[in-house]
Amino acid sequence: MIKRFVTSAAIFAAILTHAHAAQTPRPGSLDARVTSVVYQQNNVVKVAATYGISTMIIFDEDEKFETISLGDTESWQVAPSEKGNI
Fold first, then answer.
1. Percent of the chain with pLDDT over 70
2. Model pTM?
3. How far is the C-alpha of 12 from the C-alpha of 84, rounded, in Å?
4. What number of other Cβ atoms are within 10 A of residue 37's Cβ?
């Protein structure tokens, strides 16, 4: 019975781990602080941000965003640039 429980728990953990996967941008070869990721529809991209440090998200010319949402609007600010980047 314990063996069946451990096997079930391992399968359950593997399924949950895969469901919450996010694509992490890769560091650039010249500057590791500059990262990039290839767009994939329905994929989540993890953006590392730090309070007090500027972060820019650059979209391709034919891409655009529709909605910007923040959880803590008093601590974080998002402003689109003229070119449509964030």
1. 74
2. 0.53
3. 41
4. 13
Structural contact between residues 70 and 78, judged by C-beta atoms closer than 8 angstroms: yes
More confident residue, 68 or 86: 68
Helix (H/G/I), strand (E/B), else coil: 59: coil
- Are 37 and 26 a contacting pair, CB within 8 Å? yes
Amino acid at 54: S
* Residue of 61, 62, 57 whose CA lies nearest to 79: 57
Burial classification of residue 52, based on how many CB atoms lie within 10 Å of its CB (0-12 exposed, 13-18 middle, 19 or more buried): exposed
Residue with tokens 């895969």: 18
Reported as a pLDDT band with limits 50, 70 and 90, residue 71 is confident
